[in-house]
Protein 1
Amino acid sequence: MTTRDPDPPTLLRAERLRFDRYVLDLDRGCLLLDGNEIALRPKTFAVLHYLIENVGRLVSKDELFAAVWPNLVVTDDALVQSIGELRRALGDDGSRLIRTIPRRGYRFESDVSVVASIGQSSADAAAVSAASQDGDPSPEPVVNAHHPLTFFTKTPTGWRIGLFASLILAVVLVAGLLWSGVASDWKFLNVLGYGDRSTTKGPIIGAKPAIAFLPLVNQGDDSDREYFADGLTQDIINALGRFSALTVMSWNAVFPYKDKPASPEAIGRDLAVTYLVEGSVRQTGDRVRVSAQLVDTRQGRVLWSGRFDEALADVFALQDKITIQIVSALAIRVAQIEQRRVFAKPTDNLEAYDYVLRARPAFQHPTRANNVEARVLLRRAIKLDPNYAAAYAALAETYHIGVSMGWAESPTAALSRAEELATKALSLDHSEVRARVILARVHILHQRYKQAEAEIERAMAINPNDAQSLAGRGNILVWLGQTDAAIEALEQAQRIDPDLNAIDRFALGLAYYLKRRYDAAIEQAELNLRETAGVNSSRIVLAAAYAQQNRTEDAARVVTEIRRSDPTFDPQEFGTKFLNAVDLERLHDGLRKAGLYPAAASVSRPKQ
């Protein structure tokens, strides 16, 4: 293994590190393959650099979090996404170069050498070359090449702002054309708005402005009303998401920043957004007061600020005012039909709205108990307002979750109830996105894939930023046998909403398994089970993936857990929704190797 030169100043000048077929250019901040740049987000680049600095050594997840996300509380999703992005960027080399050490961390496995950079003297280059050929008895890898985050942690604020302004000047010019209407006919080339990536070759013409609405800070005296501040934030995010000219980060993406100090620049880099909104809410008696400001994350400049004081009874009008002022501040041209979608009033009954807000947390990480509790709250909301479409849609979701998690005593009856409630919601409000997504998921379970696709397309036409719709599309494509497209849709959903729900994370893990990306499948399954222990379907994928990697002890341990948690599990039924017989056989092959599927059993044909 290549080790560092004993002369530290030489490596401090080294700006390019070669491994396998790739070059990590630290000066330009990009990854190169045969001279061509491979786009990586800044945090993903930092993860790769840190792994290379510690080549051959086990790097724990906690160590990576401390190095790449210092002073921030983030979930495992952030790291899993970065590792997944790296493996995709490295293609077939990804799993070989970046090894997952189960429940411990990662190890980078490759020879690493320093490549002479422009401006480096011939003598220095020769010395580095000699060091890389002769080796050094020191066991440490190359660690003195400057870290890509060092500049941002050690350089004065003014310099940091100047650097960011320089990097995205061209993007600003293009965005100005877009906002003024000159670019209104350009096709959007990047729906996620990662326009500030340092690794892109140039500005992305027509990229949508990307925005994050941070959780509103509850400044009221009653801490029990925290859910109200969160619910108000979620509703404004949903309203902004319906403007097709914006890319809006989901609630799960911004939640890690709740009550956590971080600069707009840091949040902009972490979430790959150009704008963010931050603010506070105070409820006093029958009045609601909200203060908010829109910030350009590249320069930390406030573009707009507003203070609102409304009667609690006018809380929906308050949401509308905030939404339209943000959009106006961005000077986005908004079609009238999108305005009508945003400003539809969900209910006249504030108590019913309050019950819906109280039920929402149960959908993030469902358990049998909180799913039942959410159902009680939503029925109360419907009793207060029998025409509240969102309450019917959420209640439908509780029944779908019950079936998907294996909690329903009669899955057929529960699915029928979910379909009935979702249809009722749409009869009250045809633009209720969640109802369309749930209806599509019910169609999937009944293998009515054309109907499912139609509902998802309708949902995405209403809210193109809805992660559940994107993930729903990915679910459909998995069962249709379009695995590459399924992974693309699910990963896109994961970028908008890092905290995918248990059903969608299972689908992503299954898709990875079908593509023989077993490390990625294992990561998704293990993460899913840490977040939601009851998702037995991920245990099944985990057992199959372990078996394919000949990790017999791990596979046997998971098989024992499957049989304990679900004694009625039928391996010959699992996966029969596949329309592609090859996919079904690939799954059964892993289950056979794990000891879950009878070796002599014939291959079941997918139901038509």
Protein 2
Amino acid sequence: MKPRKHILISLILTAFTILSTLTASADDLSSQSRAALQQLVAQNPAAAKCKSRAVAVLVFPDVVKAGFILGAQGGKGILFVHGRPNGRYRTVAASYGLQAGVQKFGYALFLMNQDAANWVNNTRGWEIGTGPSVVIVDKGIARSFSTDTLHSGIYAFTFDQQGLMAGLGLQGSKIMRD
């Protein structure tokens, strides 16, 4: 009986954490997103190169992921076009599998051409992996990144990972305009 009680309490706290993250005001969210993007670009030369060539950048400064067997993640972000906020977005995901933990992180999607920006603006919700190709930039590829290697429609960078989430499972992620 006690393990079930602990799992139930963990799931309730996880849901509360995710919901409280999703209630940021528009001004706060814009400021947080801008600050997160500035920090990412300052710390990551590959992100700086992407930003200099990007048509738009979609920034999710605080995404919370939590789970035990079943998992969920969520967060809100801002689309910047030419440095100006141009829409609020949210990301949600669900997962199932051998997993446990809680993690907070942010990510930025650099939209490298007008087709990618149009895709984000004109769809009612899209999953990463559908539409324009997305390249996840990790530390290995970031070292050899140059403006000559920018060929994809969207580049994704994660940042500020905190907490621990371990596991193996299936995940579906969706991004929608608010």
Protein 3
Amino acid sequence: MATQTRAERAGRGDESRSAAGLSRAQLLAAYRTIYTSRRLDDKEIQLKRQNRIFFQISGAGHEAVLTAAGMAMRAGHDWFYPYYRDRALCLALGVTPAEMLYEAVGAAADPASGGRQMPSHWGHKALNIVSSSSPTGTQFLQAVGSAEASVRAGKLGLKDGFAGDEVVYVSAGDGTTSEGEFWESVNSACNLKAPVVYLIEDNGYAISVPVEVNTAGGSVSKLLSGFPGLFIQQVDGCDFIASYEAMAKAVAYARERKGPALVHAKVIRPYSHSLSDDEVMYRPPEEREADAKRDPVTEYPKWLVAHGHATEAELAAIRDEADALILAATDDALAQPQPAPETATRFVYSPDVDPCSERFDTEGDPHFTGEPTTMVDLLNACMRDEMRRDERIVIFGEDVADVSRDQYLGRVKGKGGVFKVTWGLQKEFGSERVYNSPLAEANIVGRAIGLALRGFRPVVEIQFFDYIWPAFMQIRDELATMRWRSNNAFSAPVVVRTTYGGYIRGAIYHSQTGASLFTHCPGLRVACPATALDANGLLRTAIRGDDPVIFLEHKHLYRQTYNKAANPGPNFMIPFGKARTVREGTDVTIVTYGATVQRAFTAANQCAERGVSAEVIDLRTLSPWDREAVYASVKKTNRVIVAYEDSLSWGYGAEIAARIADDCFAWLDAPVKRVASTDTFVGYAPSLEDEILPQVEDFVAAIEGIVTF
């Protein structure tokens, strides 16, 4: 629908149509929300200038369309992924002025984050407002994942947590539509016919960059017109009535499961981007004056009076009531205590489910069946058992399904992943639980977060670790932080499986490791099995846990004969943070993981023939890691080598070495030694790869060197 001005609609002379079917009480309630939202912005600006709060970013000029969105949707029924301008939406949904000011002062009582995030990072568990973050555009894929959850739940007959007709709202400014994840999300939303409503609040600027610089042609809705099934409307977002009509149509379209909808609302930004910005430096006076003539805070009450929906006295009473409410809320917020310092470490991980506990330790009681088989087969067996146990588990990624076209199931052998780890799962569990994603890593992780927030248990695959980096924003800034930043209101227990590592002649882009980039992220668990049995037990723990897990599967180890095992049964679990002593020794400890475990073991056996006794410890999980086992071994042998496949400098082993130096210095008879790859990339030619990656002879040299120190 083309944008219409207020004057054009008034010329129709159809007051009942102009009021969009809203009652007088609803029209006045809308004014209360619009006015309160602006006054809260003004109050926060005042508090910031008084140094009583520490950050402010406003929703000024966006109030009309956001109030309309809140009134068109159902709080606590629908799901919401707002962005920082969405104050009026949150007010309309039921967030109180006091709760918003709790955010501003960083109060412990703040329902969005308990003082952990800046103001306007909305979140409210009871209202289904999912915790917002600062990165622009990351919310889009999560919203599609949450909407996808509704679709898949309906097809799978899942009722718990699903109403059947809920809609997911997601919003952003015009500048954010430049992010690639926005386009990935629209693509998937259309493919899935997901019930998601996009609201693009186009105020013409992304900080200081005007829309025509961000968007070809200056209109994102025009660029989107070719997406099949996407219901698009353009509207004057400063006009509450027009905005409500547009939002109601969009919500109805999604609620009827026709597909996604997008409302492109032209709004204004009467204040600077934030208090750290000064728009006078890049916007001329005439442009700002033109915006002022469209301001919903002044124009909407004029419309109410002109059409007989309110008197000046009634509007004045609403303003007085709102001002009094904000004044009382301010006094309340300023008196609130900040979070106690000792609470800072709470909710990095689940407070209720500890994957390191005895609950996850059935390693001593395996129930083996069948002949020894490979890591690939035991990973597949674990996922198969877990999917039979829990109907909420879904598996997706690039090429993970047997086929994408269901009519071919049973007619062809099936793909099941590049390495066949997921082969046959789609055949048994169907295409609603095992399915292919677009070739887009952020898409995989972002949607998985949205699914997890709705109660699904996604186990997703990134085909190669070398290509995980497009998903790193979703992993580091969203997946890892969700529980902590929401003060335990939301969590996303996603398992991200990915193949990694060298020793396969894979060159630069099929040999990467880099585990330290993920172990460095609080909130993530990182597992790295070296044997088929460990892979089975650790993956089961990862799936049954309640934290996000990066599960590293070494390609070189997938089909080795030396690490085979029989199937240990559907309840076999290995707790995180429990190392395995591969070989007992008395002269030196080798701490390692992954593909270097076997090389360390072989080197230790060779050195034993020369009278040197080396103990080899396989960490199995990298975060957490088993300090007790490592320290006990170091205190016994008094010498230690830390070995890892990544580059020597800044690698994972540097942290282990530093901890040993800090905590076990009194027991050391030699400096901590490291064995690792060269500080280069991995070459393709065998002569290069062998020189770059740690080999058995490197371990032998390190062992001989440290015992003679």
